[in-house]
Each structure stands twice: as C-alpha cells, then as structure tokens.
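Hey team,

Sharing the VOC family protein run so nobody has to redo it. Sequence (129 residues) first:
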Amino acid sequence: MIDHFGIVCADFAKAQHFYDTVLGVLGYSRQMEFGPAIGYGRAGKPDFWIEDGGDREVGAPIHFAFQAADVDQVREFYDAAVGLGAESLHAPRLWPEYHPGYFGSFVRDPDGNNVEAVFHGAGPTPGDG
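Structure output:
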C-alpha cells in the first residue's frame, strides 16, 4: 500500500547523522539525494525520505505515496482526487529524473499533504514525459 513517505526535519544535518546511523544498523542506506531531500532504502529504492525543513514548521504537511498497479490506476487516482476538489500538484506523467519507469501523479489532500500515486514499471506512454 505505502510506497514511500517523507518527514520534514528542523535540523537537517543532525537528522542526516541520526538516520544514516540508525537505519544503517537495520541494513538501509542512502539511495537517492534529490534537492533538499535524502531517500533511504535498499537495492536502489528509497522508501523513507528526510527533507530539510529549516525554513518550515516541523509538523507541516508531509509527502507520502501509494503504490498503483499500473499507469491507468495512477491516472484514475489523479482524476478522482481532482474530481473531489483536490489541488493538482503534478498531473500523471513519467518522472525519469527519479528512475526509468517511474510514473506518478501528485495532489494536495484536504489537510495540505502532498499525496502521490506511483507505478514503477511504466514504459514510454504517448503524451507523457
């Protein structure tokens, strides 16, 4: 169900040290750094993210992603959310900057959280990318 999620950290340097250490004990490591965020996991897939929140209130809205079975479900998720009045953050598309085959859409839920549906096995699709 949950594909990945992230938290906002008030002291990013301290959080990096903490999570590098405690997740390392569990066999997890840094898998990706993207802007002001670091993703931890295994085998190239970041499942847990920390983000520099020095300029934001800790406890602010977070990001999490739900696994979708295919690109059609990603699109249906997006259409359903927008149909309910959710703010569109990113329409469904390929995100090659994350990894090949990453197809996702992002909306803001009623509480302001950045909610994503993602499918990791997409190929090139007409009109996306």
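Helices lie at 12-25, 71-83.

Ping me if you want the raw files.
A.
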